[in-house]
Amino acid sequence: MDATAELPAIDDEGYLIDPTDWNEQLARILAQQENIELGDAHWVAINFMRDFYQEHQVIPDVRFVTRHLAEFYGVPARNLIFELFPYGYVKQACRIAGMKRPRGWSTG
């Protein structure tokens, strides 16, 4: 899938309708649309989110992702998720990771 390829079905806010349509190439395209160049820390967060969703069938709360990043890097990571995804966990991280938009969350 390249930047000109047809994207899988998305809702009116740009989130995947079916999270199983996600792949790493799609994540790169979605990140590019958000002006984010995915680095190692992005992938640590995204892969954790994908694994959590696979196991629990629910999108992980930002606190779980932040905790995972802190444990992975062995340092406090309170603001890291917002450095990685500056326009918010829901708007950018969930979208790039191929999650459906969390309906109960309005911000962050």
Count of alpha and pi helical runs:
5
Give the number of DSSP strands: 0
CATH domain topology: Arc Repressor Mutant, subunit A
SS-based class: mainly alpha
CATH architecture: Orthogonal Bundle
- Report the top-level CATH class: Mainly Alpha
String of helices and strands: HHHHH
Average pLDDT rating: 88
Specify the helix fraction band. Answer: 40-55%
Largest sheet: none
What would you report as the Rg, rounded to the nearest angstrom?
13 Å
Number of domains: 1
CATH superfamily: DsrC protein, C-terminal domain
Coarse shape: globular
Give me the secondary-structure topology.
Elements: H1 24-33, H2 40-56, H3 62-73, H4 80-84, H5 89-96
Describe the structure.
Helix content is 48%, strand content 0%. With 108 residues, it is mainly α. It has a single domain (19-96), classed as DsrC protein, C-terminal domain (Arc Repressor Mutant, subunit A, Orthogonal Bundle), CATH 1.10.10. Helix 2 (40-56) packs across helix 3 (62-73). The longest helix is centred in the middle third of the chain and has 17 residues, at 40-56. The protein is globular, with a radius of gyration of 13 Å. 27% of the residues are buried. The model has no long low-confidence stretch (mean pLDDT 88).
